[in-house]
Amino acid sequence: MTASTAGTRLSAAERKREIIKLRRDGLTFHEIGEQVACTPQYAFKVVRVYLERVDKELSEEVAQLRRLESERLDRAHRAVWPKAIKGDLRAIDRVLRIMERRARLFGLDAPQKRELTGKDGRPLVGGGLAALLEESDDGEE
Questions:
Q1: Which of 39, 46, 56, 91 could make a disulfide contact with 83, Cβ separation 3.0–4.6 Å?
Q2: Could you give the number of structural domains in the chain?
Q3: How far is Cα 105 from Cα 87, in angstroms, rounded to an integer?
């Protein structure tokens, strides 16, 4: 790598940082392109790549935090379990709360079915969203 190549990469890195900063400041991709002398498509790509990297890093951090929280729940469960299996009602309640927390943390509970109903209380059958929208067009807001 020559000195001029290193300088070009640094300029490109600075340019990308500026694009990201301007997007954070609320500028459109077109406005960013005008300020940084690039196409809106290039600005969009820079921001997309940056956000994908941030999402990946956050996902990894969340996974680490879930593991840590799971270990803490395991320790709490082990501490209370001997009393719970002997019939201590407070310990049983505590174990159940730990289990509920674990289920929420890992999404273990089955989703609950919900039924949409109209203003008259009858289920919205067959019409789905269209029926709901028709209902809202009766002049009321």
A1: 91
A2: 1
A3: 27
